[in-house]
């Protein structure tokens, strides 16, 4: 690219022009033929544009590179460009670049590039190989796109999200404190208060799972999935540690908007199982199975060893209405409930679009 323009006439191996028709030009050959026209085009692009030889040695930068970095023309040819990367980003940039040179895979990496003011700004560097007729790499063409403003806004949103999450956790704590204080001053409110505190606690655990995370906490938690939410809710019950709760089946990522109704649904079912169902006796067990049905997700709740066996013994109350509200209204699903010989069987079908993370 840095050399003189090459004639576009097709040549035979012996140097003579091929008679009758021209040989199709390779990408690299056509690029070299463009010469000054390519340089003019590269200078009009909003990104930094660069090219290298097959071994990765830089031999061309457009004017935006020199405007941004402020370095003298030609001073970053070869491998001199690396010194302009932030020291913390150089090892990763080198590793990715060497891998692309060895394999021919497209190059893409984020790094901080030093502006002529001395400030480091975030860039996304990308490059693709240009191959000749024989398939060999003859040149790499790359760009640097400034994403510093996007990074700044993303960081600001992350900080705001974490601050909002912290305030929500404080609100949960305040509400729990108010409920506990009211129960102490009104003994008749004690049973209701315990149920309410349980629901608030379930919401808090769901929020902790789906709240905005830092890069570090996101790596620790991983993907926020339905199975992980179920495990988070049940991990606070002794029956879970005793191995009497089995969770199995498929899985999918869960959106933050679905975490609240799912947490309330699971908490109400678990509370009833502990009070009246299979988890109220030492030998009772519970199996929760998730089945992916395409557009819907089926949750099968099966209790075994429960002391009650007749549906009419359980009078539907507020908890039942809460389950109905969560499944039908908030999750766009439906459910059937039946008491078998030794426990409750619940079949919940939920619209995957309501629970799946975008």
Task: Describe the protein in words.
- The structure is a single chain.
- The protein has 358 residues and is α+β, with helices and mostly antiparallel strands.
- The protein folds into three domains: 27-146, Beta-Lactamase; 148-222; 223-358, Heat Shock Protein 90.
- The chain contains twelve helices and ten strands.
- It has helices at 27-34, 36-44, 63-69, 90-103, 148-185, 190-210, 215-221, 226-234, 238-241, 256-275, 318-330, 352-355, and strands at 48-52, 58-61, 107-114, 120-131, 137-146, 245-249, 285-292, 296-304, 334-340, 343-351.
- The strands form two sheets. A five-stranded antiparallel beta sheet has the order 2-1-5-4-3, sandwiched between helices. Strands 6-7-8-10-9 form a five-stranded mixed beta sheet.
- Helix 6 (190-210) packs antiparallel against helix 10, helix 8 runs parallel beside helix 10 (256-275) and helix 10 (256-275) runs antiparallel to helix 11.
- The protein is elongated and about 85 Å long.
Give the topology, please.
Blueprint: H1 27-34, H2 36-44, E1 48-52, E2 58-61, H3 63-69, H4 90-103, E3 107-114, E4 120-131, E5 137-146, H5 148-185, H6 190-210, H7 215-221, H8 226-234, H9 238-241, E6 245-249, H10 256-275, E7 285-292, E8 296-304, H11 318-330, E9 334-340, E10 343-351, H12 352-355
Parallel strand pairs: 6-7
Antiparallel strand pairs: 1-2, 1-5, 3-4, 4-5, 7-8, 8-10, 9-10
């Amino acid at each position: 690219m840095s050399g003189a323009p090459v004639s576009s006439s097709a040549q035979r191996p012996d140097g003579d022009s091929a008679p009758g028709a021209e040989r199709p030009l390779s990408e690299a050959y056509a690029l070299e033929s463009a010469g000054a026209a390519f340089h003019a085009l590269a200078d009009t692009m909003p990104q930094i544009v660069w090219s290298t030889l097959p071994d990765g040695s830089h031999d061309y930068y457009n004017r935006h590179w020199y405007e941004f970095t402020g370095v003298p023309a030609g001073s970053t040819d070869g491998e001199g460009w690396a010194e302009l990367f932030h020291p913390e980003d150089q090892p990763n940039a080198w590793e990715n670049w060497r891998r692309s040179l060895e394999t021919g895979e497209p190059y893409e990496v984020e790094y901080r590039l030093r502006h002529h003011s001395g400030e480091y700004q975030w860039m996304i560097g990308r490059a693709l190989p240009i191959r000749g007729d024989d398939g060999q790499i003859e040149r790499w063409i790359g760009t640097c796109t400034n994403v510093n403003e996007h990074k700044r806004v993303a960081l600001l949103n992350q900080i705001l999200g974490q601050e909002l999450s912290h305030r929500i956790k404080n609100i949960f704590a305040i509400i729990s404190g108010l409920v506990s204080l009211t129960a102490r001053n009104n003994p008749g409110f004690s049973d209701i208060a315990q149920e309410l505190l349980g629901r608030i606690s379930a919401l808090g655990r769901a929020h902790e799972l789906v709240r905005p995370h830092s890069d570090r906490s996101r790596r620790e938690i991983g993907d926020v999935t339905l199975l992980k939410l179920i495990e988070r809710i049940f991990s606070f019950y002794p029956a879970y540690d005793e191995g009497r709760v089995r969770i199995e089946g498929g899985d999918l990522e869960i959106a933050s908007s679905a975490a609240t109704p799912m947490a309330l649904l699971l908490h109400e079912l678990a509370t009833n199982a502990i009070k009246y169902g299979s988890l109220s006796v030492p030998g009772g067990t519970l199996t929760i199975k998730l089945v992916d049905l395409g557009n819907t997700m089926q949750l099968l709740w099966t209790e075994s060893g429960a002391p009650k066996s007749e549906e009419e013994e359980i009078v539907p109350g507020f908890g039942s209405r809460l389950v109905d509200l969560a499944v039908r209204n908030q999750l766009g699903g439906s459910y059937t409930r039946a008491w078998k010989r030794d426990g409750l069987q619940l079949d919940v079908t939920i619209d995957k679009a309501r629970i799946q993370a975008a």
